[in-house]
Structure formats: structure tokens, C-alpha cells
Design goal:
This protein has about 110 residues and is α/β, with parallel strands linked by helices. The chain has one domain: Trna Endonuclease, Chain: A, domain 1, CATH 3.40.1350. The chain contains 3 helices and 4 strands; from the N terminus they run ββαβαβα.
């Protein structure tokens, strides 16, 4: 019943002059913003990344179904938002209930 919780970003891109932390989701969700903010905090506390803490750090939310409210909030916090519709997403969405194929109504 006791376990160690490990948190990790969906992707970390290590570029020559900066680092990008990515959270990806089918449907964007307010929790995705919180996750990115947590990853940012943990980034600066991770010994393996200590040599990168003096470089710019970008946060990116990648999503297939846009929730305009979440996107606006993320952008207000300086998070880059990128839509991504891979070819398989249409087939996947057909498996979901209609209300799950779109963002919540504001």
C-alpha cells in the first residue's frame, strides 16, 4: 500500500539553448496546466538536469480536442498550446461517447 510516486512529463526536448517540457492530451484539461507547472518546479530540482537550469525553459500543451477555456488559461500562464490531430485520432474518437469527442461547454 506504500509506494513511491514518480512524476514525469510526456516529453522533454533538450535543445542546444533551451528545454521544452510537453504535456499531451486527447482533450485538453485544466489539470494539464497544473501538471506543467509541477514539472517546471521539478525540473529545477532534478539533479540530472542541473546543467540546463540556466537555459530557457518552455512549457507546451499538445492536444487533439481543444477546450478554449483551458487554452486561454494556459496561454495566460505563458504555456504554448499546439493542436495535434494525428491520422488515427478520428478512428479513436468514434469509439468514444459523443460528449467525450468535444470539449466541455463553457
Amino acid at each position: 500500500m506504500l509506494y513511491v510516486t514518480k512524476r514525469w512529463a510526456d516529453a522533454i526536448i533538450l535543445l542546444k539553448g533551451k528545454t521544452i517540457l510537453i504535456e499531451a492530451a486527447i482533450r485538453s484539461d485544466p489539470g494539464d496546466i497544473s501538471k506543467l507547472e509541477l514539472y517546471k518546479k521539478l525540473f529545477y530540482e532534478t539533479p540530472e538536469l542541473a546543467d540546463r537550469t540556466n537555459m530557457p525553459l518552455d512549457l507546451m500543451l499538445v492536444y487533439a480536442i481543444e477546450d478554449p477555456v483551458v487554452i486561454e488559461l494556459a496561454r495566460d500562464k505563458g504555456i504554448r498550446c499546439v493542436p495535434f490531430r494525428p491520422p488515427w485520432i478520428s478512428d479513436y474518437l468514434k469509439l468514444l461517447a459523443p460528449r467525450e469527442r468535444r470539449a466541455p461547454r463553457p
